Every structure is written in C-alpha cells, then in structure tokens.
Amino acid sequence: MAKVSTERLASLIQREVAIIVNNEIKDLQVGYINITEARLTRDHSFATIYYTILSDDKEILDKAKKLLDKNNGLIRLKLAGKIRNTRKIPELIFKFDEALAYGNHIDKILKELKG
What we know:
Elements: H1 6-24, E1 33-40, E2 46-53, H2 58-70, H3 72-82, E3 91-96, H4 98-114
Parallel strand pairs: 2-3
Antiparallel strand pairs: 1-2
C-alpha cells in the first residue's frame, strides 16, 4: 500500500478523533469537543491534537482535559481500527487550542470599547 503523506494522515486523524471523542467517550457535562487541528511529527510517532469546547468555565475545561487524557489509550485503539494505511498509530497528545479563547477575549474587549 502507498505511503500516505503527513498532511493527509493528520487530516484523517483529526476527523476520526473528532468522531470517536464526540460519539464514544462524550461527557454531557463537557459537551461537544471540537477537534481543531492535528499535527504529526515527521516520523508519525506523535500527533498533537488541538481541541476547544464551548465553555470557558475552568472546571469544565479541566474536566475535558481529564476526559481526553483518561481515554487516550481507548481513542488510540479505536483510531487504529479506522486507519489502515499507516504502519503505526501515533501517540496522542491533547492540547487545548488557546487561539479561539484568545480571539473571543479580543472580540469582547473590542465590543466593550465600542459600547
């Protein structure tokens, strides 16, 4: 089977992890977890998965992080069942995507300045 490109594999991992997280390990208190990006190392041994949630409540953010970290092995196992065109499934590293929260913060400041 042909070797898949890093960008294409990262895109596939992003899509599949989003499906797994929101359909199989979901937590009603956390709500929907949006997987915003997946970045692979050159050798495909690690994938950093960036995510956001709709809440900016610190307690819910912590719950989301714990949920992803606790289920990391299960997510990776399910991912292995969905991705067949690679030799190994990368180790997953979940990181909160600060960009959206920062953008919302700037937007709020701008609205306050106008108002």
